[in-house]
Design brief:
- The complex is a heterodimer of chains A (164) and B (557).
- By secondary structure, chain A is α+β, with helices and mostly antiparallel strands.
- Chain A has 4 helices and 6 strands.
- Chain A has helices at residues 3-24, 32-51, 81-91, 154-160; strands at 66-69, 77-80, 98-109, 113-124, 127-140, 143-151.
- In chain A, strands 2-1-6-5-4-3 form a 6-stranded mixed beta sheet, sandwiched between helices.
- Chain A is globular and about 45 Å long.
- Chain B is mainly β.
- Chain B has helices spanning 11-19, 28-36, 152-159, 169-173, 329-332, and strands spanning 2-3, 43-45, 51-53, 92-95, 98-107, 111-122, 125-138, 141-149, 219-220, 230-233, 249-252, 279-282, 290-294, 297-301, 311-314, 319-322, 341-348, 351-360, 365-373, 397-404, 410-416, 426-431, 444-448, 457-465, 468-475, 484-490, 497-505, 511-519, 527-534, 546-552.
- Classes of the chains: A alpha+beta (164), B mainly beta (557).
Amino acid sequence: MNIDLINKIRKVAAELSDLAGEAERTPMASSDDAVVRTEQTVTRFLDHLDRGELDQIDALVHPAAPYVIPGRSRISGLYEGPDGVRAASSIIPRSGVSDLTSKMIDLVAGAEQVATFHELRGVVDGRPVQFDIALRFTVRDGMIHAITEYSGDQYASDDLFSHP
Amino acid sequence: VTVLDINVLDTGGLDKMLDSPAVLDTRLTPTVMGRLLDASQTLREVADASVELTPVDSVPALGAGVTPGSTIGHASCALLDDPLALVGGDRAVFNDSTAAIVTNVLQGSSSLVAFIEVQGYVHGAPRHSDVVARIALVDGHHHVTSLCFTDERLVDALLAPLRTGPRALETLDDLPRRSPYRWRPTNRRVAAIAVVFSVAAGAGVLALVRPWHGSGAPVTTASTAPPPTVTARVDGALSVTPYASFGAVTTTSVAATDETADTTTQPPSAPITAGVTPTLVYSGEGADPFLLSDATGTYVYATNSDLMNIPVLDVSTGTRIDALPQLPEWSRRGNAYGKVWAPTVAKVDDSYVMWYTTKDAASNRQCISVARSAKPTGPFVDTSSAPAICPMGDGGAIDPSVFTDVDGSLHLLYKTDGNCCGLATHIETVTLSSDGTRVMSSPMTLLTGRDAGAKVIEAPSMSVRDGRYHLLYSTGDWKNASYQTGHAICTSLTGPCTIDNKRVLDSWTGGVGAGGAAYSNGATGSMVVFHAWENDRPSYRSGGRRQTWVISADALT
């Protein structure tokens, strides 16, 4: 990935952080119902991803929602909206990874923010690779407005998604 | 059970770890703990269990915010009873150039999630990585069970100095460069991050520690050594004691590792003299400088760096501290880190007035505000509830510059920040109140980018010399050697102005891309202070920094 793209990603991520800042600082002020609705939006989205129902995510992801995947691999970058999610997903089969599995190990929701944690396992060049990732969702009015991915081992992640 | 000494001054413990690949990845924990907490800290790691911190008797190295007798570890985790108290709290300072702040917390039924922004400088350029920590309650104690990053390599680079004891550097330098200190070792052994948050009034400390996943030799540590002096590495400009509240921090220059290559810089301790060729004032990062000289001394202010909002260098003592430690609420809530720029200071009666640029959280624009102090080194206090100058239609405003006219009236020049959003840029001026803290007139445009034949015109500074109004400004790209300083003559302080030299100052043998020039003392001084990239490193990308220089004003007319 070239440096301009990286900078662009960081700029968008910073702007996103700014925009979300006020809401982030009062995550506990909302009702339980709002938390439940936010959580349901994210779980529906993840369920669709798990089942490969990528045509079902348009109702859940805002068209301008940034989707940031960190690192230096082929999948790293800034994507936008449902099409961006589909584009990122389409890269995985071409990244040389086999037997990729993702297991969600936790979900913690606030009124507008959801963090999910996943254990990723895959095989690269015959070697098993395993690491955690976290996803941070910003959700408003039942729509996902931003997704930021965090890598528990960026070195392994880059390795995993940089082949062949 | 393997026993390792975690005292950072005891290289025996470090050497044991470094010499043993089986425990190589464990050194982060004891080193970080040893640096951040205290040599009397006891750290216990149990195989296939979690890392735990036991209370310590005193934590003098953490400074005034944490009183002796405070406890760290289990007891401090009580803070998690109110995790939201962590959000937006004081920055946890790792060293002179790296800190962290909690930006958000989500509370789940059996775990909570803390979003942390690790901030720092690499070659003087502000960088950050978001970190998310999942903290689970296990056996009555909180433990970090996941730690993920948006830029793990950056965090590695920023915190690398924390992982080296002063006497262990030679050994560490011999290690492979790529990832000698992984947060997430491939063998799933412990990798830990200790994040010390000075919460609210600084009374609390939270330690986040990653669990031990793997099998193999556990590490139990015990140390009875006296508390060490914490030795921190300086990245970017050298500050002797930039974080006084963190007590016994001294600085040392260490060998370069990865991205954090650095050379030690020394501030001056003698009076500044300006000649017809530039004289180096400060060899660290010191952009958009302003020089104030009065009976109390000579002071050089600059754009934010080294985790200071407005660094001010006291030339007589060589100390460099944050003159503006607290931003106003309207800016602070927008996370203005890295957005505090271009200070200008005027002495009005017995107080000092600083105009500066910071981010307006509500509009996400750079705007101008004002703060006052009884001393030139601060702390300057900004009591405003909104920006003083923020023309939204023009993209905001930056680069304020105080100008004192021959009749003693105060004026402020600034740049409309149109290039933020595809608009034109102007140099404008307004009249200030007699105390220098309020804008009293509508803005008048002195120059535009089109006048200068440039996309961007900025960094104005005016002086009256020989009965004429001289205006300095900058054009080009501040990020590289194309930046330059131009000069115009104005028939009055509200214009019109005519450019007579578009490149009165740009590059010479000592530096390149000279800009951000300002007449000293708000026009009344005889010097011009400015910044320039290092000659052989003319950008942040090439590892350079914008050093502070001074030249005689006569040399530019």
